[in-house]
Amino acid sequence: MTLLFKLTLLATIIPISIYIIYVVAIFSTRQNTQLLPKSQPKTTVVIPTYNEEEVIDHKIKNIKDINYPTENIHAIVVDDKSSDNTVELANQAFKKYGISGEVIVKEKRTGTNASVNLGVSKANTDIVVTTDADVTFEENALNYAIGRLLSDENIGAVCGELEPIIKEKSFTTSSEKAYRSVYGKMCTWESNIHSTYCFNGPLIVLKKKAFSPIPETHGASDAGMALKIIHNGYRCIYEANARFYEYITGDLSQQRRQKLRRSARLLEATLYNLDLISPKYGKFGMFIFPLRFLMFFIAPAAFFTSVILWSYLLGQINLFNGILVWIGFFLALLSGNVRSNLVSSFIWHQIYLLVSLTRMFRGMHVWKAVEREKV
């Protein structure tokens, strides 16, 4: 057995082993029982905004319409120096829908992370919700998230599940649909073991005492928040019953930009928190976090290395065999446009992760959002 063949096998085994663990987890994990809170405590909803005039009224109306007492909600819109009418429309919406609310306008653009820190610091309630302006909550989403949060003193934060709304089919939207079909089960499995930090930022409910300010210039706000809370000795849980809805843009360039930004910031948050690989953080520190590190940083490079090496080795036997490897690769990649499937989704996400490795330190804490539409 040659050294090259051994390296090829190793590059193949690494991603297969990692994802087999998650495949077993997906098929063995059941959705949690719905937990409603015994009471509906006063809650602060923090909404970071930047040029959200298309959706901010609709967002505040959604807070009014959900199955939660309006009198127990105080909303804080933290505006990142919008250049449109977001601030005026938010103030008008608070009055129109009878919701207690305020708008804080920052002196300069500093990004979502800074807006989250400011909004949570201004909250006067024990429970705080952070959300995005362009998503809407299912009517009981807040109840299920708060019910899970209050079910255990050791739980510091809970995130909800994204239900993607796809307007226009494309390679990437089909990939996203397949990915989302398993994402929640992966995170639920991690939550059942201890915690997950792969949070969905548009619906996070947390105990203010568990929160610490997140880094303002690096890392994703949702992952960074979860990692800080785990640092503080609490668990972070994925609650699939707490659903929210978000449009997935059909514009390939916009979605590619969004996916790469989110992936890069998730990788950055992971890299800045490697001290969590420690027995101090229990099963999260010794199993879940190391497994995610391998998935994010090692598996993509190993996967593409294996494809290249297999095509080379088989091409040495017969040139057509080497070409067949690449034909199979691209057919699998593009098959998602015909029918949403996990194989195509897997390859797309390896591409995003690999490209994102080169973009981690580009200072993407301030960015241009994708198109805004009412859900």
UniProtKB/TrEMBL annotation:
Keywords: Glycosyltransferase, Membrane, Transferase, Transmembrane, Transmembrane helix. InterPro entries: Glyco_trans_2-like (IPR001173), Nucleotide-diphossugar_trans (IPR029044). SUPFAM superfamilies: Nucleotide-diphospho-sugar transferases. The keyword Ligase does not apply. Residues 44-175 form the Glycosyltransferase 2-like domain. Pfam families: Glycos_transf_2. It is an enzyme of class 2 (transferase). Its EC number is 2.4.-.-. Coiled coil: none annotated. It comes from the Archaea. The chain crosses the membrane at residues 6-28, 293-313, 319-338. The keyword Calcium does not apply. This is Glycosyltransferase.
